[in-house]
Amino acid sequence: MDPSEVEFLAEKEVVKIIPNFSLDKIYLIGGDLGPFNPGMPVEVPVWLALNLKQRQKCRIVQPEWMDVDKLEEIRDLERKEETFTPVPSPYYMELTKLLLNHASDNIPKADEIRTLVKDIWDTRIAKLRLSADSFISQQEAHAKLDNLTLMEINTTRSFLLNSLNCMYKLRSNLQPGSSRGKSQDY
Amino acid sequence: MLDALSDDGSNISEADDGQEDVMTPAELIGKLEEAWLNEKFSPELLENKSEMVECVMEQLTHMEANLQRVRKGDVKASVHRMEIDRIRFVLSSYLRSRLQKIEKYFPHVLEKEKSRADGDPSFLSPEEFAFTKEYLTNTETYLKSVALKHMPPNLQTVDMLKAEPCLDSFVFLRVRERQENILVEPETDEQREYVVDLEEGSQHLMRYRTIAPLVSTGAVQLI
Known about the structure:
The structure holds two protein chains of two kinds.
Chain A: H1 3-10, E1 14-19, E2 26-28, E3 31-33, E4 42-45, H2 46-54, E5 58-61, H3 68-80, H4 92-103, H5 110-137, E6 142-144, H6 150-174
Antiparallel strand pairs in A: 1-4, 1-5, 2-3
Chain B: E1 12-16, E2 19-23, H1 25-41, H2 50-68, H3 75-115, H4 126-146, E3 170-175, E4 179-184, E5 194-198, E6 203-207, H5 208-217, E7 220-222
Helix pairs in contact in B: 1-2, 1-3, 2-3, 3-4
């Protein structure tokens, strides 16, 4: 999966905006939005929030978890624990990137948030590499991956799955008479 | 003018195994996204969902027809257009990933289609079936005209290489309905098989073969 497709899914998350225009309710196929009144907070999907922001029609309210104190706590916990800790949003990385790139003027301490989220991400990816390594070296057949986000899975997906498939082919070719090991490609 | 856009989209009824499933358009889009991810990540071609695809197409055409009546530069219309583009992207990506699998495994796909019992639902939509057959004929004609007819007579037949999807590939999945006692086969001869319970909401990495039936029932979602 392309990272941009994961970002596409993240854009469905809901974020609060403060519009500076007024508009009746919009009846979208995926649900109703609005009504929009100047100064009144309203919840919209991120894709719409970013579009309105680019047209200077709204101010984006940062999600509750996008806060220096809360993120520091999460970072410290993530460093302390050996397993993956719960993340504040299933799309924390994508949302941070999207919102900070397009609406950093609406988000106080944007730079600190960026660094903190990057720290959390780096810690988690390091853990992910370690566990992928032990998964392969112990030849496991099942792994539980709670608290991993789609973006994190996606960074390791093609490499990990391809390696596992290659190892499977090599191993089944070792057993003589086994037809299961035939190459799947032509 | 605004009336054209204030269309809530009435509920869609879908006849499925004789029973009526009533879905809201929002649920329909949710289903499309699930099917998209499942199709993207499963090694084999999944059941066709032509009914769902038709419903989505209907919604899109309906909305586009409404938008035709709106003057240019309307704010609401631009929001609707953006949504339509997003849905269309998912829909095309879904259909494209099916076509990619068909092109890769066409002899296998056709064989499976032939050996299917009369009552069973087809894996291919009528359009996909026509495409697969045409793809097979075209490949055969191409091989003949480029190489086979220049071969000695006894070598002029070709058995299409049967590429099969590798069901033993690993997949990532999220559990939607709790499952008990899923058998995990060992990787090596020294290991023993064991069972796991899949808790609702948990995520796993395991072989596709083990959980393939759960994907089609919707109990697990590939991610």
